[in-house]
Structure formats: structure tokens, C-alpha cells
Design brief:
Layout (H helix, E strand, L loop, with lengths): L1 H6 L3 H11 L7 H20 L8 H16 L7 E2 L3 E3 L10 H12 L6 E2 L4 E2 L4 H11 L3 E5 L2 H13 L3 E5 L5 E2 L3 E2 H8 L2 E5 L7 H7 L4 E7 L15 H10 L3 E7 L6 E3 L2 E3 L2 H6 L4 E5 L10 E5 L1 H9 L3 H4 L3 H16 L2 H4 L1 H7 L2 H15 L8 E12 L7 E10 L7 H10 L4 E2 L1 E3 L2 E5 L7 H17 L1
Parallel strand pairs: 1-18, 2-16, 6-9, 6-10, 10-11, 11-14
Antiparallel strand pairs: 3-4, 5-15, 7-8, 12-13, 14-15, 16-17, 17-20, 19-20
The structure holds pyridoxal-5'-phosphate (PLP).
Length: 465
């Protein structure tokens, strides 16, 4: 073992060879030295553990190269969404509108009046940047923005219900991906959850009977990623709001996604934010990067007297939005105010693309990929289903089109091809269906088609080698 350990090159040796032989990306010398130390150390450990480690210079240099590439490269890679899930949390949710992008660029390049009142020349509030716009768009009395909707719910409950009870239907004890669970958030906020009704049915009487002197409010939660169908019932919003008002309780509605535009797909209607405001809820919360189509944000709308309380909570300092997300939100809200958000805001556009348009795109992509056929690929336009994702329109399948790819004949089965697409420099995220690759055209951005063709060529080349 000692003999093997002695054959490991020294840090200096590896450093010289790395600098001479490898085409390393630019990096600080110390980063390279540390990477070499790390590789040597892990190789030593492997040997000491009795494993047969490859200690050849070329192998160690390869590991060093990989380590340096990992450190100098970008992990937050841009990807192509060919999976057909519009609001995909794994893929960063909403792509920004061009107005939002411009706003972010302007905010990040230099200084901005983030918390500076330009009229009076005194310290201002960052919330003021979007508050009037949000109120104008929704009809709410007041608005407050925080980091995300989870933070919004936490702030609302901690401020208005800590140490008291909040009544929620058993059918709405939601878990959103990434461990956001309504009962947990309530616990975190110091509020006490009172569950009423059953999984499928909750009635007004259930809410009314659960009210005690300790009750702070009644909360409705959007069942973002599931639907209870069949023998199911929930009270109307107006009834909940009325009961809360009668008993001097706060009515809260966590809308989840929150669409500013009316949205109806396949006969399923997503409640818009203004509809929730009109229903009279005291507090409404929703995300900025789901159906709204902006950057990460949590938006709280509601009655001024409650919002004033939220604005005074010191927790807000920990939950406040950063200026880039705020710029993205304001840019997106401008799209809604100026008009044309249906086409300007990518998420809203992708939800509304006409079937004929999708078909046209899929046929075009099929044509573009058809040179692959002579090399043994199968390329076909297909009908398919896409999803809104992001806790919106749960269980609503969007009819769409795509291209189905099969390269089995040249020795590339679907899972290998999927992996190839996923691991390339500009990754392409696809679906697999019936052992074939499915490219959904709905979420493709301009230029993505060329990349998909290039990726197929690369895959073919690799298999030929
Ligand atoms: C998505 C969602 C949340 C969490 O929102 P984030 O902006 O991701 O923090 C909370 N509640 C509901 C109902 C949701 O759909």
C-alpha cells in the first residue's frame, strides 16, 4: 500500500503537468492548487480504504480538469424546455417578458431608486415601487411584496394569527413540491391549525361550528397540484367571506398561482386575482413567478388596515424582495397595465397558443429534423398534451403538438438519447413516451429548434465514433 501511495505524483508535479498539458479554463492559481490537493487526497483515501485506485498521471490530470471545469463553469445553466410544462419549478418557473428583462438589466447595471423617494429626496420604501400598480390591476386597497408566496403566507399568519386559531378545510391542507406544507407553515407562524370538514366535502356549518374565542381567521388554500372531483363540495367564496365578517374574523385566500388575466382552458376556469379581491377576502396571497409570469415574488393584497400591520412586522426585513426580482415584477406588471400581456408575458402566451400554431411549429421542426431520417432516425409530428404546471390549472391537459424522435436503429434508445440531450452544453429537457423522445414545441423559445437539430447531429456523431 505504501508503495502505491508513493507513486502518487506530488502537488508540484501535477501542477506543472496540468499547466503544460491541459487546456484549463482560466482560473486563479490557488483554485487549481486546491483542486490538485483535493484529487490527491481523495486518491490517497481510496487507496487507504483498500480500493484499486488508478494513480496514473493522465487519470489524475483528467480528474483535476473535471474539478476545475466544475468550479469555473456555471451550474445555473440555461436549458431548453422541450418538456411542455410551462411553469416548471425545476426549470426556474416563468421566463421573463422582454420588458421585464430590460427592467432587470437596467436595475442590475447601476444604481436605482430602490428605497429612495426622488420627489422629496428622502429615504423611500421598496414596496412603493409596485404597490400602486398591483392595486390598479386588481382593485385591492393595498399591496405588499415579499420574497415568495411561502414567505407571504408566513408573514400573514405570523402577524395576524400567531397564538390564535385559523380554520382550514381538510380538503385544502396542501403540500406544494419542495416541502411547502400548509400545516407546517401554520406551525412556523405560531398559529394553530383547526381542520374542518372531510377530504372531499366541507360545509359552511363546519366552519361556523369551529369558531371559538381563539379564532383569528378562516383561510382558503388553492389546491394547486390536485383536484378533488366526484362527490365534492366547498362553500362559495362569498359565504366564507360573509361568515368571517359576521364573526369579526379575518378571511384569507392563498391563491397559489394567481392569474391577473381571466384564464379558461378546456372549460376549466382559474379564478383570477381580481375575482378573489371582488369576493371580499381581507387578505389574498399568490406567487410572482407562476401564472403572473414574473420573477420570484410573493404578493399580498388586501384591506389597508391589515396590510399596515404586515408592513410593521419586523419579520418583513428577513422576507423582503431583492431589487432584481422587484425589477422583474414591475416590468411584468407594466405589460399587464399597458396591455398585450396575453402575448408579451411568455407564460400567458404559452398557455394560449392556438392549436394550429402549435401544429405549424411541430411540422416545421419535423421538416427541419428530416435530414436525420436518412441516417436511420424516425421523425414524426405528433399530437400530445402539455401542462401548465406551477400549481395552476391542476389536472388540466393542454392539447398540443410535438415531434417524436426515435434513434433506436442507430443504437440510441430513448433513455440514452434523453441523457445525451440533458448532459450537453446547452441542455435540452425532453419527455420520454413509449420508448421514444417527445419534443413538445409549446415552451420552445426562438432559436431552440436549431439547437435541437444540432443536438441530434451531435448524438449521431457520438454513436458513430
Ligand atoms: C406555489 C404555492 C405556494 C408557494 O409559493 P412560492 O412562491 O413557491 O413560495 C403556496 N401556496 C400555494 C397554494 C401554492 O400553489
Amino acid at each position: 500500500m505504501q508503495d502505491i501511495l508513493r507513486t502518487i505524483p506530488s502537488v508540484d508535479q501535477l501542477l506543472l503537468r496540468a499547466q503544460a498539458d491541459l487546456e484549463l479554463p482560466a482560473c486563479q492559481r490557488q483554485i487549481l492548487v486546491d483542486a490538485i490537493r483535493k484529487i490527491i487526497e481523495s486518491t490517497r483515501r481510496e487507496i487507504l480504504a483498500g480500493a484499486k485506485a488508478d494513480v496514473t498521471l493522465s487519470r489524475l490530470l483528467q480528474l483535476v480538469e473535471k474539478e476545475v471545469q466544475l468550479l469555473t463553469g456555471r451550474n445555473l445553466k440555461q436549458v431548453i424546455n422541450a418538456a411542455g410544462i410551462i411553469i416548471h419549478t425545476g426549470l426556474g418557473r416563468a421566463p421573463l417578458s422582454s420588458r421585464a428583462k430590460t427592467a432587470v438589466e437596467a436595475a442590475m447595471a447601476g444604481y436605482s431608486a430602490l428605497e429612495f423617494d426622488l420627489q422629496q429626496g428622502i429615504r423611500g420604501e421598496r414596496n412603493k415601487i409596485v404597490e400602486e400598480k398591483l392595486c390598479a390591476l386588481t382593485g385591492a386597497e393595498a399591496a405588499l411584496v415579499v420574497n415568495n408566496n411561502a414567505a407571504a403566507v408566513l408573514l400573514v399568519l405570523s402577524t395576524l394569527a400567531a397564538g390564535q386559531e385559523v380554520i382550514i378545510s381538510r380538503g385544502q391542507l396542501v403540500e406544494i413540491g419542495g416541502a411547502f406544507r400548509i400545516p407546517e407553515v401554520l406551525r412556523q407562524s405560531g398559529a394553530c391549525l383547526v381542520e374542518v370538514g372531510t377530504t372531499n366535502r366541507t360545509h359552511m356549518a363546519d366552519y361556523a361550528e369551529a369558531i371559538t374565542p381563539q379564532t383569528a381567521g378562516i383561510m382558503k388554500v388553492h389546491t394547486s397540484n390536485y383536484r378533488i372531483v366526484g362527490f365534492a363540495a366547498q362553500p362559495e367564496d362569498a359565504q366564507l367571506v360573509e361568515l368571517a365578517k359576521e364573526r369579526s374574523l379575518i378571511s384569507i385566500n392563498d391563491l397559489g398561482s394567481g392569474t391577473l388575466l381571466p384564464l379558461e382552458i378546456n372549460g376549466y376556469q382559474e379564478q383570477s386575482v381580481s375575482e378573489a379581491v371582488n369576493a371580499g377576502f381581507d387578505i389574498i396571497t399568490f406567487s410572482g413567478d407562476k401564472l403572473l409570469g414574473g420573477g420570484q415574488a410573493g404578493i399580498i393584497l388586501g384591506k389597508e388596515k391589515y396590510l399596515n400591520q404586515l408592513k410593521k412586522n419586523h419579520l418583513l426585513r428577513a422576507l423582503r424582495m431583492d431589487k432584481l426580482c422587484l425589477a422583474a415584477l414591475e416590468g411584468t406588471l407594466q405589460d399587464y397595465i399597458i396591455g398585450g400581456a396575453e402575448t408579451e408575458v411568455p407564460v400567458q402566451y404559452m398557455l394560449r397558443i392556438k392549436l394550429e400554431e402549435l401544429q405549424k411549429r411541430a411540422v416545421n421542426l419535423t421538416k427541419m429534423l428530416s435530414p436525420l431520417i436518412q441516417f436511420g432516425w424516425k421523425v414524426e409530428t405528433i399530437e400530445l398534451r402539455s401542462w401548465a404546471g406551477g400549481g395552476a390549472l391542476p389536472a388540466v391537459e393542454l392539447q398540443g403538438y410535438g415531434v417524436c424522435l426515435c434513434a433506436k436503429q442507430i443504437g440510441l434508445n430513448a433513455s440514452r438519447l434523453e441523457k445525451f440531450f440533458r448532459e450537453r452544453q446547452l441542455p435540452i429537457i425532453v419527455r420520454i413516451h413509449n420508448d421514444k423522445i417527445v419534443i413538445d414545441v409549446r415552451c420552445l423559445m426562438s432559436g431552440d429548434e436549431n439547437e435541437i437539430f444540432a443536438a441530434c447531429q451531435e448524438a449521431g456523431k457520438e454513436i458513430a465514433e
